[in-house]
Design brief:
The chain is mainly alpha-helical. 72% of the residues lie in helices and 7% in strands. Strands 1-3-2 form a three-stranded antiparallel β-sheet. A hairpin with a 2-residue loop joins strand 2 and strand 3. The longest helix is centred in the C-terminal third of the chain and has 24 residues.
Length: 225
């Protein structure tokens, strides 16, 4: 039971998170954890003020996770998300990626909305530390969740596409912005007659075109002999 909960949290997790979600007797919890370490299913990584555990092999975690039926996984993901929110209420930004992941597994509209919000929060933090590829991944995830949550909310989808376009430009994927994100964002903006969003979409496309043109201009040319 303890390892099943751990598998939902992730390959690596904090002791306090596992304890909060597991909800079992303290002695049983400690003995189960000790046994998992003894059998080399988990390994301990202690740092100052923090005790973390990690599945020694990804296969262990994957097997435990896949052995559960979907309703079990969904319930545990929700419990993990709630526990993380409670544990790190004053540091949600630091755990936004994990929160987005766990809430995205829910079928509750309120949870899915949180998944989108935490994905956006995590993407901004990733951008701030120049992890542009991670920002792209998080915003792509937010778009997928938004499609499930409310595919008719064109304004929100447009905003996510614009944010994704900005992240893609920073990641160097200029042509994709020109071909996909900018036109999609523009179409959504026009559908809701939002000139401000339409202008942002056009500006996004222009930035992509400028970046592509600059790249072509600065490419080394072959010398003709």
């Amino acid at each position: 039971q303890l390892l099943a909960v751990a598998s939902v949290i992730g390959r690596e997790f904090a002791l306090e998170t596992l304890k909060a979600v597991a909800g079992i007797n303290e002695d049983v919890f400690v003995n189960a954890l000790k046994e998992a370490v003894r059998l080399s299913v988990l390994e301990e990584h202690s740092q100052r003020g923090v005790v973390r555990y990690r599945f020694t092999h990804a296969f262990f975690r994957q097997t435990l996770y896949e052995e559960m039926i979907a309703p079990q996984r969904l319930k545990l993901h929700q419990q993990v998300a709630r526990s993380l929110e409670a544990l790190y209420a004053k540091r949600l930004g630091e755990h936004a990626t994990a929160l987005a992941e766990h809430f995205s597994h829910s079928t509750d509209p309120a949870d899915l909305k949180k998944a989108v919000e935490y994905s956006e929060m995590a993407a901004k933090r990733a951008t701030d530390v120049y992890a542009y590829g991670e920002a792209v991944r998080l915003l792509e995830q937010a778009l997928k969740v938004q499609e499930v949550l409310d595919p008719e909310d064109k304004a929100k989808r447009c905003d996510l596409l614009l944010a994704l376009g900005d992240a893609l430009l920073l990641a160097g994927e200029h042509q994709r912005v020109i071909d996909m994100e900018a036109p999609q964002a523009l179409a959504l903006a026009e559908a809701i007659a939002d000139n401000k969003r339409a202008s942002r979409a056009c500006l996004l496309a222009m930035k992509g075109l400028v970046a592509v043109s600059y790249t072509h201009l600065t490419l080394p040319t072959k010398r003709i002999v």
